[in-house]
Amino acid sequence: MKYALSAGAFLLLGTAMANAAGIDRSGQPVGLLWEEGDAFELSFGAVDPSISGTVAIPGVGVLGSGDMAESYNQIGLGFKKQLNDQWSVTVMYDQPFGADVAYPTGTNYPLAGTTADLNSDGITGVAKYQINDNFSVYGGARMVSVGGDVEIYQNGALTYTGEFANTSGTGYVAGAAYERKDIALRVALTYSSEIDLSIPTMENGNPSLNTEVTLPDSWNLDFQSGIMADTLLFGSVRYVDWSEFDITPFGYNLATGDSLVDYANDGMTYSLGVGRRFTDDWSAAITLSYEESNGGLVSNLGPTDGNFGVGLGATYQVQDNAKITFGMKWVDIGDASTDLTPTGLPAGAIQGKFTDNSATAFGVKLVTTF
């Protein structure tokens, strides 16, 4: 059975675009490990989220936040070297985490003017050992650099600024896979360890204590299987231990008794797709994705709770050793509530309500083998 398509090409739709509403952006993919021979890949994604909400303030009325989520781009690349029949090594670059927040000014929303940026770069080096035709194991090291800044306005007044210098930390990646090439079957389980960072911090223009941050560990289960001639079923399950992720600058905590960003629950994201080869050169796929919601109050810097997405992709075999995949995706962002209660009132007494939000995304991925 000949397959011109692979789940690795179409899972482009499940990386930068799957989590268009949250800070988990790349999904930390390892699909390049299974390209034939030596290979190089380059991917680019553009994501445009639209997130707005309202708050009802007694004696004032209902105020709208305006669109507080900015568009962003994602880049990924990787190189694989096949050393012999059993050993290969791969180096990959991604942008695993990010946030781009900007509450518009002039809305009278309590947080109007507030901005926050989180950027990251990750480099992963992995060695893969093919035990036999069916089983393989792989592992390696991962380095992630994170930095950002935040300005918080409350009722028109600047109340807090934080600058977090780009800081790197290291962890590891380990996994195993089972394959049956005659039916294009592959099941791969990948673990990425947590990474601890001690980030030099400036608060309100003055040096502060380092902010201790743990980037969460995660599990990725990726699978694909031929279900009929020229037709592939594929998908993934991703678990992230978000409850261990917490950004609590010293000065901010001293003033508010709270964290700048934290999560009460871990996260699960599911995707499922079907791909079909129509000609020797063209194949296409549709994917569905779902990220569970957890309920409760969420951060004003990330007013989303779960999402559901639909993606379409097409792959063109440019020549025998090169293929290019185009994708687009629409994401329905889950409704969320935030706490906007002034000091002196019970927590949660006044809430921002973010509903009927969405995101659109476009991506392209080039893979060449040689």
From TrEMBL:
Extent of the signal sequence: 1-20
Keyword check for Nucleus: no
Gene3D superfamilies: Outer membrane protein transport protein (OMPP1/FadL/TodX) (2.40.160.60)
Primary residence: membrane
Pfam families documented for this protein: Toluene_X
Keywords from the named record: Cell outer membrane, Membrane, Signal, Transmembrane, Transmembrane beta strand
Subcellular location, record wording: Cell outer membrane
Domain of life: Bacteria
Topology relative to the membrane: Multi-pass membrane protein
SUPFAM superfamilies documented for this protein: Porins
Keyword tRNA-binding: no
Entry's family note: Belongs to the OmpP1/FadL family.
Protein name per UniProt: Long-chain fatty acid transport protein
Species assigned in the record: Marivivens donghaensis
